[in-house]
Specification:
The protein is an alpha/beta fold. The protein is built from nine helices and eight strands.
Length: about 240
């Protein structure tokens, strides 16, 4: 059992998600989680969070149903310069950010330019996690990204939605294997993320955890159960 899930979505993410933050938090508490991250999609995602929504998050309670909440955003990387879709004054007030590529907002420009996009997005001090960077639709040089990640204070996630058989990203086992290889090489911890868009999936890392364990990745380099260390990392970029 793992105690934290830092990539989840509420109704503010749109595209069929219907659960409130309170419902997500209640489900996480029932499952025994101690720390929950709400990372709704940025404004470039159709029907997702507006700037006013992200502004209001800073006033939301940090303790609900016996667990701690942190409020972030899943940013859309928009181009190879690493531009993202939330204005600076709002982003700096959130706890952290996940930076991701989505087909609706980013056109794959090939390995070199996709890698450049991630490297540039990682420079932002709020970006702490690279979201589903395993996606074969956006080939990247994981070696280059991993070698820069420690200096930038950024981690890879193992995404449950990516590793669930039959998922819409296709077979990501090869790319996930390469991510884990690079994390070992550069001594980078990882996070397991549900990427859940509803209460039923919160804290569910069934396939991601199985893949990581089968790959013999060291348990002490998975931060989900190291709550104090994880909080420090999300706040400062140091682990």
């Amino acid at each position: 059992m793992y105690l934290s899930d830092m990539h989840t979505h509420s109704i503010a993410s749109g595209h069929g998600t219907i659960s409130t933050i309170s419902e997500m938090a209640k489900a996480a508490s029932r499952k025994g989680l101690k720390l929950l991250g709400i990372t709704d999609h940025g404004p470039a995602t159709m029907n997702a969070g507006t700037p006013s929504y992200f502004r209001s998050l800073t006033y939301s309670p940090k303790e609900r149903f016996g667990l701690t909440l942190m409020y972030g955003v899943e940013l859309n990387i928009l181009d190879s310069e690493g531009h993202v879709d939330l204005q600076e004054d709002l982003l700096e007030k959130l706890d952290y950010a996940v930076a991701s590529m989505h087909r609706q907002n980013y056109t794959s420009l090939g390995c070199e330019e996709n890698t450049r996009a991630f490297l540039n997005a990682m420079k932002h001090p709020k970006v702490r996690i690279l979201g589903h960077s395993d996606n074969p639709a956006f080939p990247v040089d994981y070696e280059k990204i991993a070698s820069r990640a420690k200096a930038c204070g950024v981690l890879f996630e193992m995404n449950e939605a990516s590793l669930t058989p039959g998922g819409y990203r296709g077979d990501t086992r090869k790319t996930c294997t390469e991510i884990l290889r690079c994390c070992r090489k550069y001594d980078l911890p990882i996070l397991l993320s549900s990427d859940s868009h509803g209460p039923s999936g919160v804290g569910d890392f069934t396939n991601a955890a199985a893949f990581v364990h089968e790959s013999m990745f060291p348990e002490n380099m998975i931060l989900n159960n190291q709550i104090p260390r994880l909080k420090v990392f999300l706040e400062s970029g140091f682990w």
